[in-house]
Amino acid sequence: MSMRRPTSPALDALVGIGIVVAACLRLAWAYGSLHWAILPLGAAGAMLAPTLVRWLRGGSDAFDPKAIVSLFIFHNVFVAPALHLGWDWYTPMVRVPDDAWNWFGRLALLNVVAIACLEVAYGWTTRGIARARASRPLVRVRPERLAAVLGCAGLLAMAAQVQLLLHFGGPSGLIDAYEIRSEQFSGVGMLLMLAWPFPLIALIQTLIVLSKRRGRRPTARLVVGLLAAFAILHLGWAGLHGSRLSMLGGMFLAAGLCHFTLRRFSSRAVMIGMSAAFVFCFVYSFYKGAGREGLSTALSGRGGLAQAQQQTGRDVGWLLLGDLARADVQMEVLWTMYDANPDYRPKLGATYVGAAIFIPRLIWPTRPRGPQEAYAELRDGMIGARDGEVPNSRVFGLTGETLLNFGWAGVPLVHALFGVVIGLLRRFVDSLQPGDARFLVVPFATLLVTAVYLLDLTQVVFMFLQDCALLGLCAAVALWHPYAPPRRLPPARAFATVGRGMRTA
Fold first, then answer.
1. Is pLDDT of 502 > 80?
2. What are phi and psi of 238, to 5 degrees?
């Protein structure tokens, strides 16, 4: 993927496991004894820590899909449970059993088996990856064709944005509607999806222009300036309706496109970018929780920040454990299924039907709402919402949604399939030669694979339609070449050709 600094696997494992052991000892000290749940928690963290240490040391590409997914898995299976138990902080409305330590321990045991299945499946899929690197011929795209296709998509996105603003009465009307959670947002999902990609279209057009400067490698300042300009445009274009997922998804895609087409990022640059994204998420959460008033209060001074946190309930704990992790929700689901409500029947895949969000409810009025309905039934014994309403706003992630569908036995199997998907993506990326036009689709694929672990399938499908569908269509048109069947040779000539090939071999 890119030039990597040589690292020692043994040293990476030693450093990673040492960090995990130190964190476990700190948790045991806070608890007052070595609770048995700390052991499977530490085992889950130790299985992933060497990959992250190698990534941070520059031993793998900054946008290596396995390392990025491992980062979020590590946070969800080790960091988040440890913070939940150490801080005694849980997402509002999540029911916590009296023996939370025991149920986090049971969840950790399940995670250890699931991670082992993922690693085995990933290792099996990526065997022979060195041979795959030379197996794909270089594919280039004509910049003129790509620019023309993106121009048409940009006009479509601009038309959708204009229609969206007319619907709300301008940007201020859009903000007002968001602050009161107006019903005006009902029925505008298609406009939001079509308008969203415009900043990325503008970025790719800029990359096309920069790629024509032969012999001049873009400087780091140019890349940083380009990403900063994109962030400002993206915030003003798609950030008014309070979706941090849309904002972070756009920034991830922009950084990935610059990484693969302009200048490869170092691990230090990635850490700086992740820190900036964390600060943005923390500040933006006040706008998400209380609109312009919450944001102005948070930025008014030190006292204002504390006031905004109290007003919205959104603090660092909410960001780390409520937004970036699903550990307490998954623990609640496991506990409720096997203790509080053992009569619950797993849905056997029925929640995935809710991912068919592209079918309007005018055509399918009873279309399922996804895992939220199953969770409401698990928790309350009934859906608990009127027709057309969402029973709750919980996000369960890969493990949580699998529990609702198949119980604990399905979690290792689904993680094994997930490992195969990551491995196939890694094989595809490593098979591309420098300058291959298919690097344009790699950030989108990496984003979707990461979303599969963090989100529910319904949200992954929505992310695909919003973030990838229009730009993916543009890439497909730009990369398409008419199929030309091989020319049939006369029998004698064909035999001679094969003979020359055999002699050469």
1. no
2. -125, 5
